[in-house]
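Query structure, 405 tokens:
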């Protein structure tokens, strides 16, 4: 009998013929702790949705070709995107007391999947290597990826075989959307900024933050961006927004801000594998909450079917009341998510972020320590005043781009 020959081919994703095969691999690669509870992601018919809004993006697939049977099967995929971000800061030439951002061209890898039956035969490595070749062609200086720190297979692939180093450990904070609205104190005033005013504030106050995107204006004008909001004490500002120029020249003692990204329009998620007991308890909390809403019981939303979420990004603030103002903004974001039919609200911040304590979340749904790994793609880049970014110590804050969630 003739021996079957198998060839692995890595090529660019073709939406006209590869979508079904890619979705099948995604279903086979549901991820979850200890293999018990898994999270299914539905890309709503657009496998490139999680990178599509970036300045440059690419999706590659790995395909098994059996010569004897003349069959093809998609067994893996990877997505990547490139942007220019802040990697550090230096003193201004014109003002020795002012710091200005130092930028680099950064690539991001996400959505690496390999069918369970074809793992540990080098397909993941082939996909990463091919994606990195595209990164280099486009002039990217660094590449990074994010994964669960307990995902041993992923961590081992990137750190042991692909040359990545563990870099940052942000925390993912997840808050359920309850059946009742979160009350907002009358002592807090919340303003909805125009994209232009929001850009002015971000470039003035956040431009030296690690991973701050140079094209922040593109994010703020994107149709998925639901707005940027600033909270102040009612006694600090008049009823109307004074404009970004005046706000920056005469800022209140305390303020907080964040932006909201509508991930619900990009993809949905679904929790699978939960026991009947867990599902029953969750249902009971919702029933009691509906029957006695005045008790404000923190019910568990319906997460065992498809649900969407809003992502909070660009979180920051100043002053003695900054944390409490951030909490009020998160309450406002919760109420907006409730109106839009979301299941949860998500934020990702540095573990050292001063505003973190003002972000409500459920520990059971959140991740205290995500893992970002980074790699320098070439040695012919100028270190400048930052040096090798992969060896730099973490700052207090990071800017998480909502286009890559």
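Result returned for the query:
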């Amino acid at each position: 009998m003739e021996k079957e020959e198998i060839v692995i081919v890595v090529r660019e994703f073709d939406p006209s013929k590869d979508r079904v095969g890619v979705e099948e691999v995604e279903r086979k690669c549901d991820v979850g702790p200890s293999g018990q509870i898994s999270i299914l992601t539905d890309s709503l018919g657009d496998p490139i949705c999680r990178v599509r809004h970036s300045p440059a993006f690419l999706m590659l697939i790995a395909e098994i070709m059996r010569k004897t049977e003349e069959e093809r099967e998609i067994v893996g995929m990877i997505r990547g995107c490139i942007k220019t971000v802040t990697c550090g800061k230096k003193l201004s030439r014109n003002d020795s007391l002012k710091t200005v951002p130092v930028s680099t061209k950064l690539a991001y890898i996400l959505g690496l999947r390999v069918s369970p039956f074809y793992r540990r035969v080098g397909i993941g490595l082939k996909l990463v290597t091919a994606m990195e070749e595209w990164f280099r062609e486009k002039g990217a200086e660094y590449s990074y990826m994010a994964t669960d720190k307990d995902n041993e297979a992923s961590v081992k692939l990137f750190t042991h075989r692909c040359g990545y180093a563990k870099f940052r450990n942000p925390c993912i904070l997840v808050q359920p959307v309850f059946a009742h609205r979160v009350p907002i104190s009358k002592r807090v005033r919340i303003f909805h900024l125009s994209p232009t005013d929001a850009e002015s504030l971000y470039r003035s106050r956040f431009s030296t933050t690690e991973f701050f995107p140079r094209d922040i204006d593109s994010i703020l004008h994107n149709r998925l961006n639901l707005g940027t909001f600033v909270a102040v004490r009612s006694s600090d500002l008049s009823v109307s927004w004074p404009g970004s120029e005046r706000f920056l020249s005469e800022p209140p003692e305390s303020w907080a801000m964040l932006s909201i990204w509508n991930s619900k329009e990009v993809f949905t998620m679904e929790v699978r594998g939960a026991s009947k007991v867990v599902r029953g308890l969750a249902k009971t909390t919702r029933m009691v909450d509906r029957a006695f809403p005045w008790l404000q019981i923190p019910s568990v939303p319906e997460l065992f079917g498809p649900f969407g979420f809003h992502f909070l990004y660009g979180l920051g603030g100043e002053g003695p009341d900054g944390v409490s103002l951030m909490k009020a903004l998160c309450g406002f974001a919760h109420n907006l998510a409730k109106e839009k039919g979301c299941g949860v609200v998500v934020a990702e911040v540095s573990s050292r972020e001063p505003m973190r304590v003002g972000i409500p979340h459920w520990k059971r749904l959140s991740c205290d320590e995500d893992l970002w790994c980074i790699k320098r793609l070439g040695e012919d880049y100028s270190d400048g005043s930052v040096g090798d970014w992969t060896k730099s110590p973490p700052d207090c804050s990071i800017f998480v781009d909502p286009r890559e969630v």
